[in-house]
From TrEMBL:
It holds the Pfam family NIF. It comes from Castilleja foliolosa. Its EC number is 3.1.3.16. Residues 350-442 form the BRCT domain. Residues 132-307 form the FCP1 homology domain. This promotes the activity of RNA polymerase II. Keywords: Hydrolase, Metal-binding, Nucleus, Repressor, RNA-binding, Transcription, Transcription regulation. It comes from the Eukaryota. This is RNA polymerase II C-terminal domain phosphatase-like. It catalyses: O-phospho-L-threonyl-[protein] + H2O = L-threonyl-[protein] + phosphate; O-phospho-L-seryl-[protein] + H2O = L-seryl-[protein] + phosphate.
């Protein structure tokens, strides 16, 4: 039976259960617009996962029951049903047709699946307990500029033409990191250490992909990162699934926020979930990526014929942090219960260790008449554990300045304090380690403007 043949106003939960079972069994492949997978076996694998997840969600009201899903679906009288799960506009528990606006759409699990808020909370509670019982947390992974970098084939520059002779078109080759994907007219470079990262974190986290890219692109990238289907299964959230335009959110993740960590290069898209975020330095392999972020005078890694360090780069660094956070969260010497712990507090504690012994004063960093404590550099320094001050005193350890000629900068030199560029704070944040101050010198500014303070 197809969705178009479904009963318009069925009052029989048994009839609808049979319809739902038939619908799940009849799914044979993804819609061509939603899949760029190359092989029929890969398509079948994804379809089986989708159908399995829907059945698991629907039958999870009695997860210990051995009954058939179709029997469980019809177990509640129609007039008392709260419609926890909606599939194809029908509630599988009571058979009643439900309005499209009801609940939250979980299109990444199945295009016709919606869950009520109460059901989302119940599943989150159950699945979070299961994760914690297995000493796992949840890790949300952004794609572009975090795990990889992509460019349209038409945007490849003359200086990057040499790459076309180095690409691989077979996602299953885990040794390859540069791919040409003619079906979506793109070239993709995987970030160094990405396969090692995924292998390591898979033992500590349940993994999601969450991208602002469209679903066909997301599926293609997932196939490069996880060609054997080991890490992500159906947990792939794309722009098509987002509940708010241009925003990501943990409302689509079926794990409690207290057990979720996010890796992403863009803080602004995460709204109220920033406390879960580990901000990643952007991976600019292609020239078009630099242009996208206004880095006009910056050469990309491909143009420089260079690459990030595999052992000391961004992904190797963040793996160390993830291991530290995981270890702290599951520390057996802690007295509190596992379910009462919050990974966001662990994140804050670990992050505050980076600059914990530093007292910072800023000079010519903030616009005149602004409130310094609202500036990103001030906030970043405090997140890293530094004490920020507006005034100089003997306890100050660092002056962060854009110009070595300001009064505060000269004071730092005279008093043998550290004088550093604001990039020192940024580098310390991305690497989760206080950086050598000598690598961030401050030069004399040639231009004096009234937009920034001379102090």
């Amino acid at each position: 039976m197809s969705l178009s043949d479904s009963p318009e106003d069925s009052s029989s939960s048994d009839d609808f259960a049979e319809f739902l079972d038939a619908e799940l069994d009849s799914i044979s492949e993804f819609d061509e617009n939603n899949s760029v997978l190359d092989t029929e076996s890969e398509k079948r694998r994804k379809v089986e996962l989708s159908g399995g997840v829907i059945t698991r969600v629907i039958t999870s009201h009695s997860s210990s029951s051995q009954e058939e899903p179709s029997k469980l679906l019809g177990s509640l009288p129609k007039n008392t049903c709260t419609h926890p799960v909606i599939f194809a506009r029908f509630c599988p528990r009571c058979g009643k047709k439900v309005e499209d606006e009801f609940g939250v759409a979980f299109g990444y699990i199945h295009k016709d699946l919606r869950l009520s808020n109460d059901e989302i909370a119940r599943i989150r509670d159950r699945d979070s307990k299961n994760l914690l019982r297995n000493k796992k947390l949840c890790l949300i992974l952004d794609l572009d500029h975090t795990l990889l970098n992509s460019a349209q084939l038409c945007d490849i520059t003359v200086e990057e033409e040499y790459l076309k002779g180095q690409v691989d078109s077979l996602p299953g080759n885990l040794k390859s990191t540069l791919f040409r994907l003619d079906q979506i007219q793109m070239m993709t470079k995987l970030r160094p250490f990405v396969h090692e990262l995924l292998k390591e974190v898979n033992d500590m986290f349940e993994l999601y992909i969450y991208t602002m890219g469209e679903r066909p692109y997301a599926l293609a990238m997932a196939n490069l990162l996880d060609p054997r289907g080991v890490y992500f299964n159906e947990r792939l959230i794309s722009r098509d699934d987002c509940t708010q335009r241009h925003q990501k959110g943990l409302d689509l993740v079926l794990v409690k926020e207290s057990a979720v960590i996010i890796l992403d290069d863009t803080e602004a898209v995460w709204g109220k979930d920033k406390e879960n975020l580990i901000l990643m330095g952007r991976y600019h392999y292609f020239a078009s990526s630099c242009r996208q972020f206004g880095l006009i005078n910056c050469k990309s890694l491909s143009e420089l014929k260079s690459e990030e360090s595999e052992t000391e780069g961004a992904l190797a660094t963040v793996l160390k942090i993830l291991k530290q956070i995981h270890s702290s969260f599951f520390d057996e010497e802690r007295k509190d219960k596992l379910e009462d712990r919050d990974v966001r507090q662990v994140l804050k504690t670990v992050r505050k260790e980076v600059l914990k012994d530093c007292k910072v004063v800023f000079s010519r960093v903030f616009p005149t008449n602004s409130r310094p404590e609202h500036h990103p550099s001030w906030k970043m320094a405090e997140q890293l554990g530094a004490t920020c001050s507006r005034e100089l005193d003997p306890s100050v350890t660092h002056v962060v300045s854009m110009d070595a000629g300001t009064d505060k900068s000269r004071w730092a030199v005279r008093e043998n304090k550290h004088l550093v560029h604001p990039r020192w704070i940024e580098a310390s944040m991305y690497l989760w380690l206080k950086q050598n101050e000598e690598n961030f010198p401050v030069s004399h500014s040639k231009n004096q403007t009234n937009l920034v303070s001379n102090l």
